[in-house]
UniProtKB/TrEMBL annotation:
This is Ribonuclease J. Residues 18-211 form the Metallo-beta-lactamase domain. It comes from the Bacteria. It holds the Pfam family RNase_J_C. InterPro entries: Metallo-B-lactamas (IPR001279), RibonucZ/Hydroxyglut_hydro (IPR036866), RMMBL (IPR011108), RNase_J (IPR004613), RNase_J_2 (IPR042173), RNase_J_b_CASP (IPR055132), RNase_J_C (IPR041636). Keywords: Cytoplasm, Exonuclease, Hydrolase, Metal-binding, Nuclease, RNA-binding, Zinc.
C-alpha cells in the first residue's frame, strides 16, 4: 500500500471572514483550493482589499499541481489574478465559475495592464477527474450562487474533503441543488479529514428556509401599487432569482439597476444572453427599460433591483437619497425594500442609508440580519454533512475563532473525539503520516497583503497610521525659503493647515509654530555644515511638542526648506 504523506496549510480564511485559501499537499504535489480576498476593517483607510501573501507558494512553485475554485464569490476566487502572476498552474472550476473567472481575469489585465497566463479547465459540478495522478471528485452543493461545489482529494488513507460553502435545501432550483448521492459515495470510500465552513455554526436548526426572501416580501409586492425598489447583494444570485419570480408572479417588469457594470448580476445576465440554459432566465417581456425610470406612466409597474457589492451598495443608496443619481429619484408612493443585511465593516454607512430612507416619502421595509440568513451552514446542516462523510478527523474552516468553537461543539455532539477535531490558524501546517495526525505543527508567516488601487503590498502599517492621523488630526505644512549662500530666510514663511484647527480661533498657534521653525532654520547661519534633513527633523520635533501641549492634537507635520 502506498504511504502518502499529507499536509494541510491554510493561507487565508481562518479566524477571519473571507480571503479563503487552503493548500493540500499530497507527497510532493500541492493543490490550492480557493483563492479569495476579504474587505479591510474600517481602520484600514484607503485599502481596497486584502489578500494572503504567496511567499510560501513561491518557494514551492514547481510543486503546485492545480488551483481549484469552488464558486464564483470574491472570497473564493477574486485573489486568483494576483496568485497567477506568481504561480503558473492549471485552474479547475465548475463551468459557470469558470466563465466568471475568465471575465474577471480579462478585466484585471485591462485595468492593471498586465499579462496573465490563464490555463482554465471548466468541469462539470459532479465531475471525477485525475490531476497528476491524484483522483479528484467534485460534488454539487447549494449556495447563494449557482454552480457551487465541494471537492474531495483521494489519498491512500481516504479522502480529504473540502465542503465548500453550503446549506441543505432539497427544494432549491436545479442550478442550486446539491448531490447527496455523490457525497454518500465519497463517504463510503472513507474520509480521512473533513473541512467544514463555520460562519453559521452558532445558528440553531437548518439555515433553510430562513435564507429565503420570498415569504418575507411577497405581501409587500401584493400591497404595493407603485414601483418597488429593492437592494440586494449582487453575489447572492439565489435571492436575485427569487425577486425575478416575484416580479413574474405580480405581472410587473424588472429593471436590473446594478450601478457597477462588473457586478455579478450584470455579468450573469450577459452570460445568460449567450446561453441555451441561462442561470438567470428573464423573458423579454419581463424586462423593463432603464431609460424610462422616473416616468410614472411607464415605471409605476417596475421592480428596480439595485444590486452591488457589500462595500458599494449602501453608498449607492445614500447617493440616490441625496439626489445624486441621474435616473433614479425617490418619490412619494415608492416602496423601498432593503434586502441587503448589514455585513461587518459596513455598519456606519448602512446606518446612514437606513436613516436617510426613513426621511423620504417612500414606504421602507428593512430586513435585518436575524430576519434573513446568509446561505451558510447552520448546526443541523453541518450535522448532515458530518453524518454523510463520517470523517476520521474534522477541521472547522472559514470563520472567526468563535465560530470554530461552535463548529467544534457540533462535531463533539456527533461523537467525533476531541483530539480528532483540529483548529488551525493561517500559516499553521499539520501533517498526517500513515493516516495519523502528527502532534507537531510547522508555522509559517502568512502576512496580509493590502491592495490599494493598483498597488500590491505598497501600503504598510506606517502608511495606514499616517492616514488615520490625517483623518483624526489633519496636517500642518510649514515652508521656508533660504539663501543657498548666506543661509538667511529670504521670503515670508508660509504655514498651511488642513483638518487641524479653526484658524480664526487659533492664529496664535500657527504664529508660534512659524516662530519655532524660523528659530530652528536660523541655526544654519551659525552651523552651515548642518544637513537640511536634520533641520527638517528638528522643525518637526519642536513644533509637534508645542502643538500637542497646546491643542492636544497630533497632526501630520511636514517641514519644507527650499534653498535658492
Amino acid at each position: 500500500m502506498k504511504n502518502d504523506v499529507i499536509k494541510l496549510i491554510p493561507m487565508g480564511g481562518q479566524a477571519e471572514m473571507g480571503k479563503s485559501m487552503y493548500c493540500f499537499e499530497i507527497n510532493d504535489k500541492i493543490f490550492i483550493i480557493d483563492s479569495g480576498f476579504r474587505f479591510p476593517d474600517s481602520d484600514k483607510l484607503g485599502v481596497d482589499i486584502i489578500i494572503p501573501s504567496f511567499t510560501y507558494l513561491e518557494e514551492r512553485a514547481d510543486q503546485v499541481a492545480a488551483i481549484i475554485i469552488t464558486h464564483g464569490h470574491d472570497d473564493a476566487m477574486a485573489a486568483l489574478p494576483y496568485l497567477l502572476q506568481t504561480i503558473h498552474a492549471p485552474v479547475y472550476a465548475p463551468k459557470l465559475t469558470a466563465l466568471l473567472i475568465k471575465q474577471m481575469v480579462e478585466r484585471f489585465q485591462r485595468h492593471n495592464r498586465v499579462k496573465i497566463n490563464l490555463d482554465l479547465h471548466p468541469v462539470n459540478r459532479n465531475a471525477s477527474i485525475d490531476i497528476e495522478g491524484v483522483p479528484v471528485e467534485f460534488f454539487p452543493v447549494t449556495h447563494s450562487i449557482p454552480g457551487s461545489v465541494g471537492v474531495a482529494l483521494w489519498t491512500s488513507y481516504g479522502y480529504l474533503v473540502y465542503s465548500g460553502e453550503f446549506i441543505i435545501d432539497f427544494g432549491a432550483p436545479k442550478e442550486f441543488q446539491c448531490d447527496i448521492q455523490k457525497m454518500m459515495e465519497i463517504g463510503k470510500k472513507g474520509v480521512l479529514a473533513l473541512l467544514v465552513e463555520s460562519s453559521g455554526a452558532k445558528h440553531d436548526g437548518y439555515t433553510s428556509p430562513n435564507h429565503k426572501l420570498t415569504n418575507k416580501i411577497d405581501h409587500i409586492f401584493e400591497d404595493s401599487y407603485e414601483r418597488i425598489i429593492i437592494s440586494s447583494y449582487a453575489q447572492n444570485v439565489f435571492r436575485t432569482q427569487e425577486i425575478i419570480e416575484l416580479t413574474k408572479k405580480y405581472k410587473r417588469q424588472i429593471v436590473f439597476y446594478g450601478r457597477d457594470k462588473y457586478d455579478n448580476t450584470n455579468t450573469l445576465l450577459r452570460i445568460a444572453q449567450r446561453s441555451k440554459k441561462p442561470v438567470l432566465n428573464v423573458p423579454e417581456h419581463l424586462l423593463g427599460d432603464k431609460e424610462k425610470i422616473g416616468n410614472p406612466q411607464y415605471d409605476s409597474n417596475y421592480v428596480i433591483l439595485l444590486s452591488g457589492s457589500p462595500q458599494r451598495i449602501y453608498h449607492d443608496i445614500c447617493d440616490i437619497i441625496d439626489g445624486g443619481d441621474d435616473l433614479l429619484k425617490l418619490r412619494k408612493g415608492d416602496t423601498f425594500i432593503v434586502a441587503s443585511p448589514v455585513l461587518p465593516g459596513t455598519e456606519k454607512i448602512a446606518n446612514k442609508a437606513h436613516n436617510g430612507l426613513y426621511k423620504t416619502d417612500a414606504h421602507v421595509h428593512l430586513l435585518k440580519n436575524k430576519d434573513l440568513f446568509s446561505m451558510h451552514a447552520s448546526k443541523e446542516d453541518i450535522k448532515v454533512i458530518i453524518q454523510i462523510f463520517k470523517p476520521q478527523y474534522y477541521i472547522p474552516m472559514k470563520g472567526e475563532y468563535q465560530h470554530f468553537i461552535f463548529n467544534q461543539q457540533i462535531a463533539q455532539d456527533m461523537d467525533i473525539p476531541n483530539d480528532h477535531i483540529i483548529i488551525i490558524d493561517n500559516g499553521e501546517r499539520i501533517t498526517f503520516e500513515k493516516g495519523k495526525l502528527l502532534d507537531t505543527r510547522d508555522v509559517f508567516e502568512i502576512d496580509d497583503v493590502m491592495i490599494d488601487g493598483i498597488g500590491i503590498g505598497d501600503v504598510g502599517e506606517k502608511v495606514i497610521d499616517d492616514r488615520i492621523q490625517l483623518a483624526n488630526d489633519g496636517v500642518v505644512i510649514v515652508g521656508l525659503t533660504i539663501s543657498r549662500e548666506t543661509k538667511e530666510i529670504v521670503a515670508q514663511t508660509d504655514c498651511q493647515t488642513r483638518g487641524f484647527v479653526y484658524l480664526k480661533d487659533s492664529e496664535y498657534v500657527i504664529k508660534h509654530v512659524i516662530e519655532i521653525c524660523e528659530k530652528v532654520v536660523g541655526q544654519l547661519k551659525e552651523n552651515p555644515e548642518m544637513e537640511i534633513a536634520e533641520i527638517r527633523s528638528m522643525m518637526k520635533d519642536q513644533s509637534m511638542k508645542y502643538i500637542v501641549k497646546e491643542t492636544g492634537k497630533k497632526p501630520v507635520f511636514i517641514g519644507v526648506v527650499v534653498e535658492i
